[in-house]
Design a protein that fits this description.
With 297 residues, the protein is an alpha/beta fold. The protein is 42% helix and 22% strand. It is built from ten helices and twelve strands. Strands 3, 4, 5, 6, 7, 8, 9, 10, 11 and 12 form a ten-stranded mixed beta sheet that branches. Helix 1 packs across helix 2. The longest helix has 28 residues. It is globular and about 65 Å long. The two termini are 33 Å apart.
């Protein structure tokens, strides 16, 4: 079987952009070249990879082969970067996936640090929920990621920071000015919970306090939850990094019991790290307070 990296790149681009025209623009190719490359790949694998509909969607065979195409392209990027790094400084473009609270509260400072000390590395950021991050990292969609409380702790990963879960309430809430809030103090308010990675920790928090976990509403989007708290429809529980996402009418108050989470920068577990991801991790270990300089890939 003779499959080229260009064919795989076309396949992934058509799937990601849900169309041949958009894929052609992204790849800097003509639409006819994109169509020809994908048709050649389909002939090689003896089956259609996408449905020519609007929007374009992967077939069942496409769904099976797409993760392998992503992983192959990711490994090829890492191969090129490793070869270049053998002779000079690691460079190139890497993709990084982050959860929303990390993207808003932690990442801007890290991007400044990385740009200052490694301006030759270009970073493309993808924001996603925890479940998507794990899939994207291991499937090759991204080269590195921030994961929350990974278990087991990945080999070579770096714990960059910790934060704790706090109550998010309106600024005029009776408990807004307190030094801390007992979790039991929130039982009189409807509890709004985002399903984007926080339901598990909030359940554990209630178990730690010996309290029943009874959310009034489950909401996927974090910004929707904040809007509902702002409208006076209830209270929420979010990590302290969410402070950068709050309007002036909302505030975070520390909770008791205290539950922390670890924010971990890591690469994939099933293949070698991209050399530029290693470089960013080592930079973070050297320059961040409490960075673990012994991390290794």
């Amino acid at each position: 079987m003779s499959v080229t990296l260009r064919q795989l790149a076309v396949f992934v681009a058509v799937a990601d952009h849900a169309g041949f025209g958009a894929a052609a623009v992204a790849l800097g190719m003509s639409q006819s070249s994109v169509s020809h490359a994908l048709a050649s790949l389909e002939a090689t694998v003896n089956g259609e990879l996408v449905r020519r509909t609007a929007p374009v969607e992967p077939t069942s065979l496409g769904d099976v082969l797409l993760p392998h195409a992503r992983a192959t392209l990711s490994a090829a990027r890492a191969f090129d970067a490793a070869a270049a790094a053998h002779h000079s400084t690691a460079a190139g473009t890497i993709s990084l996936s982050v959860p929303p609270t990390v993207a808003r509260g932690l990442l801007p400072g890290l991007l400044r640090l990385w740009h200052e000390h490694a301006p030759h590395i270009e970073i493309t950021v993808f924001e996603a929920i925890d479940e998507e991050i794990d899939q994207w990292l291991e499937g090759g969609t991204v080269d590195a990621a921030f994961r929350i409380d990974p278990d087991p702790f990945p080999d070579g990963a770096l714990q960059v920071a910790t934060d704790a879960y706090e109550a998010v309430v309106r600024s005029d809430h009776p408990l807004a000015g307190e030094e801390f809030i007992e979790l039991s103090d929130l039982l009189e308010d409807p509890l709004l919970v985002t399903t984007s990675g926080f339901a598990g920790p909030i359940t554990r928090l209630h178990a730690m306090a010996g309290l029943p976990y009874r959310p009034a509403r489950r909401i996927r989007e974090l910004m929707t939850l904040l809007s509902m708290v702002e409208a006076g429809l209830g209270v929420g529980i979010l990590p302290s990094l969410a402070a950068s996402m709050l309007s002036d009418t909302l505030t975070l108050v520390p909770l008791r019991p205290r539950l922390e989470r670890r924010l971990v920068l890591t690469g994939p577990t099933g293949r070698p790290w991209h050399p530029s991801a290693v470089a960013l991790r080592d930079l973070s270990a050297r320059h961040l307070p409490g960075g673990d300089a012994t991390a290794r890939a």
